[in-house]
Structure prediction request, 393 residues.
Amino acid sequence: MSAESTGYDAARITVLEGREAIRKRPGMYIGSTTVRGLHQLVLDEVGRAVKASLAGRDGRGGKVEVTLTSDGGVRVTDDGPGVPFEDCGKSGAPGLETLLTRWFGRAGHERHDRSTVFMAPWTGESSVTNALSSRLTAEVRREGVRRVQEFARGVALAPPADAGPVTGSGTTLTFRPDPEVFDTVEYVFAVLAARLAELAFLNPGLDLVLTDERSPDGPQRARFRFPGGVGEFVTFLDAQAGEWFIPDVIAFEREDPRMAGGMDVALAWSGTHEERIRSFVNSLATHNGGTHETGLREGIAVAVDVYARAHGLLTAADPALRADHVGADLTAVVSVKLDDPELTDCTRRTLGNTAVRACVAEAVREHLGAWLEEHPREAEGIVDRILRSPVRD
Prediction:
């Protein structure tokens, strides 16, 4: 069928760029215009704020405050160094005004590294938040000066203006989601609280505060800070589920240049007869697993198998424990932070970095193996649970 017969040719193609493209097809950038996309809008800014807050702190400490304001807006504040409004000519780093007004492409304008905090399979950008907000106010506290700039639906209303001296540093974005774009502009406190709690577990020492000022009965406030990191995460997951079997949580962290990143791992055996393994890359939940989760299972299997044979709990005639044998009563969290994470499959919820598998397996084998030798009574109970697991029948 020819273009002439259909009446369709190149002259009918409309090319949308930047702000227009975002507002025309918002679902391409935040997933949807439902409440899920609304939450993603604020979570993307939380990810930016967390990265800024952790900058220069070796990934530890820092504070981010999220406030649901009484007028239906959201305020996200970090205590980082403060993003300058102007582009940095020497480093080529974009300034805040550029970040808020230019779309750099779906994959982001810079290479992701281990400091990047993924709040969704595709990292959102502040230009998207700005374009989808009816009003946005950007405030920077830097080098003793406070500067402010106003935007309306992604367009700057005026240049950045000095707003007087200030102590401390950081960046604050206050925005109101555009009701012309979203089906609803009502945030759900519990949904945001759950994601912030998870983020705090995965970034030990980070202080996250969520405040809801919308209620006539007064503000609702929740604070999330877990210096124990993924070890506390495992404790939390098991406390939700019920009875403990092993009172100790086996937790460790390790940097490994072979995988261009680091890992935080925690595991424990409970009496719930369930397997709960949670895996993450750069704070993003990998619901479909991947190389880090495979490495975790393989490391556990080898460590338990070696211990069981050394202590006569398995004989030479018994088959080796496989990775799918070790899940009975196991609660575990494996979190990796990588300089160049590879998210695979159509949902981008599977980690594909091949080096991660061997690195995590080796680390788990060493740490769990040492723990089993130091805790023979608990080790015997773990081996017994695994050997009696129905998956081995």
